[in-house]
Specification:
The complex is a heterotrimer of chains A (235), B (278) and C (237). Helix content of chain A is 80%, strand content 0%. Chain A has 235 residues and is mainly α. Chain A has one domain: MetI-like (MetI-like fold). Chain A is globular and about 65 Å long. The termini of chain A are far apart. Chain B folds into two domains: 127 residues, D-Maltodextrin-Binding Protein, domain 2, CATH 3.40.190; 113 residues, 3-Layer(aba) Sandwich (D-Maltodextrin-Binding Protein, domain 2). Helix content of chain B is 46%, strand content 23%. In chain B, the strands form two sheets. In chain B, strands 1, 2, 3, 4, 5, 6, 7, 8, 9 and 12 form a ten-stranded mixed beta sheet that branches. With 237 residues, chain C is α/β, with parallel strands linked by helices. Chain C has a domain of 162 residues: P-loop containing nucleotide triphosphate hydrolases (Rossmann fold), CATH 3.40.50.300. Chain C is 35% helix and 25% strand. Chain C contains nine helices and nine strands. In chain C, strands 5-6-7-3-8-9 form a six-stranded mixed beta sheet, with helices on both faces. In chain C, strands 2-1-4 form a three-stranded antiparallel beta sheet, with helices on one face. In chain C, helix 3 runs parallel beside helix 5 and helix 5 runs parallel beside helix 6. The relative contact order of chain C is 0.18. The chains are: A mainly alpha (235), B alpha/beta (278), C alpha/beta (237). Chains in contact: A-B, A-C. At the A-B interface, helix 2, helix 5, helix 6, helix 9 and helix 10 of A face helix 1, strand 2 and helix 8 of B.
């Protein structure tokens, strides 16, 4: 039990003193995971929306596939990206392994299916509701797609958060492709894994607490934005 | 038509993604830096935090250490994902060089392994006169033993000790012989948690913070010494290897300055690594 | 542009797999004004409206507007007010803008305000559309349909279970449209409302057309048994 008290104290101390190493690690975590969210939204949103409204043979198979990919273990994604980016792999020439870029790619691969699958679900529901009205208006397809994404914007915010939550919390993928290199690719989760392996459980837990506070802040921030938007504009 | 539109979007996104990746990659490649594939035991001991600033100060070359098990480090280096290999599993290192992946292997330093266990010492390891005797006692008492089980240098060393003692502990895998498949620290966490004996390098043990009431139960025997080697990844096999920067790191660590720096590193007043470059 | 009238419906049938929902419907509408589609529940009134508007393709027969099938070009000149209006998850004004932006209109803001004023929703312009009451939602749907500047307006039970004020607003707008020469095709349950608005009546029963007549004749002397019972308040199935 002493560990818990010690951890809270340590966590507080780390944050209060703005420990430069901690700040660096936190900023890298945010940079990597937010970039991954941005990219996965860029890819997953239109992809999910397209699957949501389009009707084509094999559509159900595609949906099942995307839904299953949501459960990809991070370490498997890490391995796949490692093999692709390794100097012995097809993209080795890009020299990305053991860099933040590699971590961003791995997390993007990890969460794009989540963004695509959840977007597909949301857009499909809206499509069921709006399709006939849009047909009555003779609305061009691209405008319909834009309308779905815009009208689902608050739900899609939650989709982004789900992706961010998974990205910022995973360790399996970033530790394989990033290598947990100090001052280069060390993020919150790999630092926690490292401290655990050093047996410094109190420090590991303290870092975990900091991670939770960050996740909490990001969520609170987004919910606040959402609340304000709903109240004032809704347009 | 919709599918074509969506397709365009996806390709656009993919292109932006790839472009972003390339830009980051270029920026990354411009730094004068090398990657050293090494082991968790050296990294966790804090040795690199002591050595690298001195080297970087002198040469301006940034050294990035990837700390994994020796098996994975060698595998990564074989893939060309690193410029220098610094590990401790001599036969595997020699094979790495023989297969053409490395240029040449040099002895750098050694440390030693110890056995740790609960203070009650249920198998009576403390009374053993040799490593083989200690292992016989553990196997005879079927006392829990936590093994790395991860093909690391430490794991390979442990297996060779069992072999010397003429015991095949893997027959008891899952009962008293427990292979964690994890790093040294995680294995020590597990050992302390389940009251098992474990073999560890001294450096990891001294810096390990979750010892509980564990004690060193066996140490100082000749066959517990642990030789580290350093190898430049072969630029003929992987042309992008930064041979020059890598070689200057190797030259430095094998030279007087590097060797002295290794000897200088102490944790809790104890020297962890003993330089022995020839 | 060719006139959308006459509307000619010939041998119209619609089936989902083996279930025939509408069969052998024939009628012609030549004059503007209000055509009311009446009939008991499940007679196929909403389905007929969708077929007329080209939202569904007929299984058999044809629908033509001034000789042309209800394709995009025809549908663009028509508007549909669904029974349960599909309002976008946006403000009242944004719902209007969404439709207005599809047309080339000079004073979009002014047009929007005038239409909202007409249905009494101008004070609610900034409100989220989906938080309006049922009657307000119907009035917004009407304003939105008018924003399309339609030559033909389909209304599917626009006044079912509405407050009297909303019903009055909707009916007065329908009368204005009538005077302006817009064709209105209205589905309603409400015989009193039909009497107030209709020029002619189409009566459906179990997927077939049993009667088409001027409003006057239909309400005085309905020729089909089903229509007679329906007007008398009998339960027609």
């Amino acid at each position: 039990m002493q560990d818990f008290a010690q951890s809270f104290y340590l966590a507080f101390q780390l944050v209060a003193s703005a420990n430069p190493d901690l700040v660096e690690i936190v900023l890298l975590s945010l940079k990597v995971s937010l970039s991954a969210v941005f990219l996965s939204v860029l890819i997953g949103l239109p992809l999910g929306a397209a699957i949501g409204v389009a009707r084509f043979p094999g559509r159900n198979a595609v949906i099942v596939l995307v839904n299953s990919l949501m459960g990809l273990p991070p370490v498997v994604v890490g391995l796949l990206v490692y093999l692709a980016l390794s100097n012995a792999g097809p993209f080795g020439w890009m020299r990305l392994l053991y860099s933040p870029a590699a971590m961003i790619i791995a997390q993007t691969v990890l969460i794009t299916p989540i963004v695509a699958a959840l977007t597909r679900e949301i857009v499909e529901q809206l499509n069921d509701e709006y399709a006939e009205y849009f047909r009555s208006l003779c609305l061009p397809r691209h405008r319909a797609l834009a309308a779905y994404l815009w009208d689902a914007r608050f739900n899609l915010l939650t989709v982004g958060l789900a992706g961010f939550g998974r990205a910022v919390a995973e360790v399996g993928a970033v530790i394989v492709v990033g290598g947990n290199i100090d001052h280069l690719t060390r993020v919150m989760t790999t630092a926690i894994a490292l401290e655990t392996s050093k047996g410094d459980l109190a420090l590991a837990l303290a870092l975990g607490l900091v991670l939770m506070v960050i996740a909490l802040s990001v969520n609170a921030l987004v919910m606040m934005m959402r609340g304000t938007a709903t109240r004032t504009a809704y347009a | 038509m919709l599918r074509r539109k969506a397709g365009k979007l996806v390709w656009g996104a993919a292109a932006a993604f790839a472009l972003g990746g390339v830009l980051v990659g270029v920026a990354h490649a411009q730094d004068e830096s090398i990657i050293v594939q090494s082991t968790t035991s050296t990294a966790n001991s804090g040795l690199y935090d002591h050595l690298l600033p001195i080297f970087e100060e002198k040469t301006g070359i940034k050294v990035n250490v990837v700390a994994v098990g020796t098996g994975q480090a060698i595998k990564n280096a074989s893939n060309g994902d690193g410029d220098v290999l610094l590990v401790h599993a001599k036969p595997a290192e020699e094979k790495f060089v023989a297969d053409g992946f490395g240029v040449e292997r040099f002895d750098v330093m050694y440390n030693d392994f110890i056995f740790v266990g609960p203070p009650a010492d249920p198998a009576g390891v403390k009374d053993a006169g040799s490593v083989s005797e200690a292992l016989e006692k553990i196997a005879g008492a079927e006392a829990p033993f936590a093994s790395r089980g991860d093909d690391s240098g430490t794991h390979k060393k442990e297996i060779s000790l069992w072999k010397t003692a003429g015991i095949d502990p893997t027959e008891a895998s899952g009962s008293w012989y427990r292979e964690t498949g994890s790093g040294m620290g995680a294995t020590l966490n597990a050992a302390v948690g389940m009251g098992a004996y474990a073999m560890t390098d001294r450096g990891t043990w001294i810096s390990f913070k979750n010892k509980g009431d564990y004690e060193i139960v066996l140490e100082g025997h000749d066959n517990l010494f642990n030789q580290y080697g350093v190898i430049l990844v072969n630029p003929e096999k992987h042309p992008h290897v930064k041979a020059e920067a890598g070689q200057s790191f190797i030259d430095w660590i094998l030279g007087d300055e590097g060797q002295d720096a290794i000897a200088d590193y102490k944790l809790d007043g104890q020297q962890l690594f003993f330089p022995n470059a020839k | 542009m060719a006139n959308l009238l006459p509307l000619v419906v010939r041998d119209l049938g619609y089936a989902v797999r083996d279930t025939v929902l509408l069969r052998d419907v024939n009628f012609t509408v030549k004059s503007p004004g209000v055509t009311v589609v009446m009939g008991p529940n499940g007679a196929g009134k909403s389905l007929l409206l969708r077929l007329l508007h080209g939202l569904l393709a007929p299984s058999r027969g044809s629908v033509t507007w001034g000789g042309a099938p209800p394709d995009d070009a025809v549908r663009r000149r028509q508007a549909m007010m669904a029974q349960r209006p599909v309002l976008l998850r946006r403000s009242v004004r944004a719902n209007m803008d969404f439709v207005l932006s599809l047309r080339e209109i000079e004073d979009r803001r002014g047009t929007c305000d005038a239409l909202l004023e007409r249905v009494g929703l101008l004070p609610f312009a900034a409100r989220p559309a989906r938080r309006l009451s049922g009657g307000e939602q119907q009035r917004l749907a009407l304003a939105r349909a008018l924003a399309q500047g339609p030559e033909v307006l389909f209304m599917d039970e626009p006044a079912s279970s509405l407050d009297p004020a909303s019903t009055a607003t909707i009916e007065s707008v329908v009368r204005e449209l009538k005077h302006a020469g817009t064709k209105v095709v209205l589905v309603t349950h409400d015989a009193a409302q039909a009497r107030r608005l209709a020029e002619d009546v189409v009566f459906l029963h179990r997927g077939t057309l049993t009667e088409q007549a001027s409003a006057e004749r239909f309400f005085e002397r309905p020729s089909s048994e089903a229509a007679r019972q329906y007007l008398a308040g009998g339960l027609v199935i």
